[in-house]
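Input for the complex:
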Amino acid sequence: MGRAFVYVILGGGVAAGYAALEFAKRGVSPGELCIISEEPVAPYERPALSKGYLLPEVPARLPSFHTCVGANEERLTPKWYKEHGIELVLGTRVKSADVKRKTLLTATGETISYKILIIATGARALRLEEFGVTGSDAENVCYLRDLADANRLVDVMQSCTGGNAVVIGGGYIGMECAASLVINKINVTMVFPEAQFMARLFTPKIASFYEQYYVSKGVKFVKGTVLSSFEIDSNKKVTAVILRDGSRLPADMVVVGIGIRPNTTLFEGQLTLEKGGIKANGRLQASYESVYAVGDVATFPVKLIRENRRLEHVDSARKSARHAVAAIMDPEKTGEFDYLPFFYSRVFALSWQFYGDNVGEVIHFGDFTGGKFGAYWVHKGHLVGSFLEGGTKEEYETIAKATRLQPVIDDLAMLETQGLGFALAV
Ligand code: FAD
Ligand code: NDP
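Predicted:
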């Protein structure tokens, strides 16, 4: 049993949705393109799962957040794929791939062949078991990567109103889920190994602002330690979390956000890997000519930083996917991907954006007592990164533009005094 396509996108997440839009814009013919996804629904904007999806009132639900609404583009419903002759093979896991033969074998036993493959398999959430802690399959322990996880989290949350949640991990999932839990009237304790949350991006001063804000919302922090075990009752529910420092936190539910691993397994030994991802060039082409890699799973050259990076953010997934399709459909007119890294988050009434790279010296500016504030990173005499909390659309565009230009900075004191004004004047 088998089917053949010109283009196959493996994975049906954010990158797949934006790649499909780009294929359609560039005129793919009906029957040429197929998307294979383990998820049972058409591509959607994954960031909604830790934000609008978890709201207690008028929560976001599909079909409202199918790609590509997150970039103010068309919303690609299953009907859209049908109208464009794009085959959606949903609820189907690919269990092996043969890049030389250009075939994929699905768990249902079908062989799908292609001329060009775009790998958009994203990543999976790391599990506590991988750190030697057992019990995370208990009913009230939640991870968050896909729609099924989000539905489970909503169910568990609804049964815990007024109760206690322990959030494990101080990264993006921890920060956003903690806020959503508070909004759902659940008491939250966050536990993470570092001295501050968002340690990989936030400076201690930035983290301290958000932590104080969280404390004002009733969130408690247990820093510098990790979970060692769960207390589980006869109903297979966690009742308490035991930490490595010996303390015990009663829990009605647990949310775990301890990082991800890119889904590269199908291609190990067949394609070159780097920094945990599938190595791609400036056209997002992997080490085998007919294969491209985009989104969370791809490690590609970030020209501006002069380094190969694997980025785990939605803007990178959207733009790398579109660039790969441009490179495939119009190779003559498509140059090297020239990407400015962009990360953002929204929690409670707060909202921040970051552009570029967070290396070098940091200059903070603005009002850290609850107003608008930010930071610049200066490396080898150039502005390389910018962070802004509470900016307007125009201000965010301004810091993005300034960061891309990497202006020379020879007076750090001046940069501090000018603050946001510096970016406005670049
Ligand atoms: P994914 O969107 O993860 O899609 C991968 C797809 O491949 C999935 O459909 C998966 O089922 C499928 N797949 C994998 N293996 C197989 C297989 N063998 N067979 C078939 N299908 C397979 N980023 C931001 O910048 N801002 C945010 O606010 C933000 N919020 C987020 C909130 C949550 C809850 C999560 C989980 C992530 C968030 N991110 C955010 C990160 C962002 O969503 C990812 O960077 C983005 O989804 C990556 O897109 P992708 O297409 O590479 O991977
Ligand atoms: P992150 O990598 O952001 O954070 C993981 C956190 O868990 C870190 O604080 C990490 O510490 C900590 N940690 C690691 N191991 C353990 C452990 N054994 N016990 C306790 N804590 C541990 O991953 P997330 O899980 O938060 O997010 C998953 C993915 O989703 C990421 O790709 C992220 O980009 C994406 N996402 C993005 C959002 C956004 O951009 N707004 C929102 C939500 C998700 P350490 O640093 O020391 O390893």
